[in-house]
Amino acid sequence: MILTEFDYEKNAIINPWHTSDMVQGMPKVAVTCFSRVTFARMLSAFGGEIIASTNVANMEIPVCKTVYHGYEICLFMSDVGAPACVGAMEEIYAMGVETIIMFGTCGVLDKSIEDCSIIIPNAAIRDEGTSYHYMPASDEIEVNPKYIPEFVSILKDFNTHYTIGKTWTTDAFYRETPKKMAKRIESGCISVEMECAAATAVAKFREKEFFEFFYAADNLAAEQWDKRSLSNEARVEEKDRVAILALELATKIIESEEEKYMLQFMDKPILR
Fold first, then answer.
1. Which of 6, 82, 157, 248 has most Cβ atoms within 10 angstroms of its Cβ?
2. In the chain, what are the domain boundaries?
3. pLDDT tens per residue, range 165-195
């Protein structure tokens, strides 16, 4: 199959550094979401200076810098679907970001998962095409090998319910059939979305850091599809709190990196 033709060569004909330059003053940690409403409310709440833009497909996405708890953080909005999402990630990494924190909705395959509750994926079924350009073919990919303990600590501090489990990344939301869903549930999936496997693969390929979590939306495990809070305009205040969780993780990562830097500096011998 063509999806098994993975090429380890990192230098392609068109590379992200051909279209995106390093941005002076670019924060090392970025937070991104898929909802236009949530993104706009984040900028309204915390402010944001436009410092760059991505060049994916037929639209420009503003790349902003905001300050949260005294730390500079990059903010940008991701496009839905693996190819566009990964294209933007490639350019954001090329601009100088080292860690991307992504959050967005997912469908649930476990009807006990409450609407708008947090899901942390630890593995993803690769039922899309983009990830196969970034790592050899396999059915699954490990997700979030780093930062789950830190994020869980934040969730506990905010008294927020969460579920950890496998997700199903697919390209075709109108082809999530009952038969396919049953197979995914049998394999241990609790959620379905369109980017996680591919986003994880590009971060691994580029040797960058990446963390993704979801907030539960539509219920596919009900007798009939239940849309619940899938709309961008639904339960916006709760989604504001989800955005805060992402920003809290960003600050924790920045603090950790600063601490590592200070320890390295202290370990160096003093020249006399």
1. 82
2. 24-223+239-256
3. 999 999 999 999 999 999 999 999 999 999 9
For residue range 188-215, what is the model confidence (pLDDT) as tens digits? Answer: 999 999 999 999 999 999 999 999 999 9
In the CATH hierarchy, which fold is given to the domain comprising 24-223+239-256? Rossmann fold (3.40.50)
Looking only at Cα atoms, what is the longest distance across the chain? 75
Name the E strands within the chain.
29-33, 49-54, 61-68, 71-77, 99-108, 118-127, 140-142, 162-170, 189-193, 209-219
Rounded Cα distance between 195 and 87, Å, is: 11
Q: How far is CA 210 from the centre of its chain?
A: 7
How many CB atoms are located within 10 Å of the residue 214 CB?
26
Amino acid at 122: N
Q: Could you count the other beta carbons within 10 Å of the beta carbon of residue 127?
A: 20
